[in-house]
Amino acid sequence: MKKLIEGIERFQASVYQPRREFFERLALGQQPHTLLITCSDSRIQPDVITGVGPGELFVLRNVGNIVPPHGWGQTEAEAVIEYATVALGVRDIVVCGHSHCGAVKAMLEPQHLAELPTVAAWLTHADETKTRVQQKYGHLQGAELLDAAIRENVLVQVERVKALPCVASRLAGGSLDVHGWVYQFEHGEILHFCKDHAEFAPITAAEATRELRS
């Protein structure tokens, strides 16, 4: 707590005071342009890796960046997505997984979840990912299997997001797009799913522009 309190004091003195008018405007309402769905992992700081400021990202975080299918009774993730699209009018939704994801590793090795029954129950929402990984990547092992599973999990969640009624209608109308990313801690790099080539590749300004035009 000492470290957190010291950080709050630095924020108030060095960040808030010089930009007081900006923060006062934030109190009047929010207009984020993007919903970012990512993992609870403490190593991911969405505003840091994307370089945005307060008020620009609406963020949904949970273990494994999972979006349960529509109608399964798990409504928290869908409620966040619905609010972001309907009430806030975000223009983009990004599902962002990450390297060395403990949730995906646990999905592949559920025997390690004996003392984490609630986590195990939550990860049943990743069963579709697990099935696809077994079908497509049964020849892989270790780190290669984990990397493939992390990417496949992102693609599954992207499909689920696109299938939500509040998203599907906006996709059809062209007012919204959905993207799949994987953040690699060790390289400081973000891979995005390139629709044209059906594979993940490092995201660049040129690639982003091309994606927006597609």
SSE arrangement, N to C? HHEHEHEHHHHHEEEH
- CA radius of gyration is 18 Å
Chain oligomer state: single chain
Major β-sheet strand ordering: 2-1-3-4-5-6
Largest pleated sheet: 6 strands, mixed
Count of DSSP-assigned helices: 10
Residue windows where pLDDT falls under 50 for at least 5 positions: none
Beta-strand percent range: 15-25%
Helix content: 40-55%
Q: Look at the helices and sheets and give the structural class.
A: alpha/beta
Shape: globular
For the record, give the distance between the C-alpha atoms at the N and C termini, rounded to a whole number: 47 Å
| Average residue pLDDT | 93
| SS elements, strand count | 6
Characterization of the model:
The chain has helices spanning 2-16, 20-26, 46-50, 76-87, 102-108, 117-122, 127-136, 142-163, 165-173, 205-213; strands at 34-39, 57-62, 92-98, 177-184, 189-194, 199-202. With 214 residues, the protein is α/β, with parallel strands linked by helices. Helix 3 links the parallel strand 1 (34-39) and strand 2 (57-62). Helix 7 crosses helix 8. The radius of gyration is 18 Å and the shape is globular. The termini are far apart. The model has no long low-confidence stretch (mean pLDDT 93).
